[in-house]
What does this fold into?
Amino acid sequence: MPFAPRIIGKPLLELSSPRDGAVVDTAVIHSTAGSGEPEAVARYLRKLKPGKRASYTLVIGRDGDAVLLMPLDRAAWHAGDDDLASWTATGDGGLRVNPCSIGIALCNRGPWPVGPLSCTVNAEHPKRGVRSRVWETYPQAQIDALIDTLIWCRTQVPTLTRITGHEDVTAGKIDPGPALPWEQLAAVGLQRWRGPWPLKSGFFEPQGGA
It folds into this structure.
């Protein structure tokens, strides 16, 4: 049976925007920074106060449960301001990630406040100034579902050519973090796009693409 994410409840249209003709060419991978699974994430987003702009296109649980929160032709509010000069320019000269991208969130705490535990990994983040060294791991079922989700997104949106992390496009973010096994995605042709360094903020150590 072909893979497709499931849908729970009503789409989060109130937490999205029209794409206004922007070409969707990138998937941005996030972590939720919490313990909840997809349905809990959806409930949290629905309860956000008016004016709070935060949402994802899809959420994937630790057990591989992939949930579509809104249609792919809507722009989720997942990346905020970016540092990539090739994205959609706004009228005031700024840049916007959201109209050109799909936001995929992995249920994961990210930096672990205690540990190490059996579900954590010790790793250094490549961003300067990140002190966290212990991170929640991403279970194999979740990584398998991420791969299936990315392939599904490409079948739905043929212009989708880049896969990147939230940390790669927004200066103040560190997710999905060093625990994500990008090499598993690359092994099936889903290479991480990190752009030419340094970006305008210079927040990564120069290291080229990965």
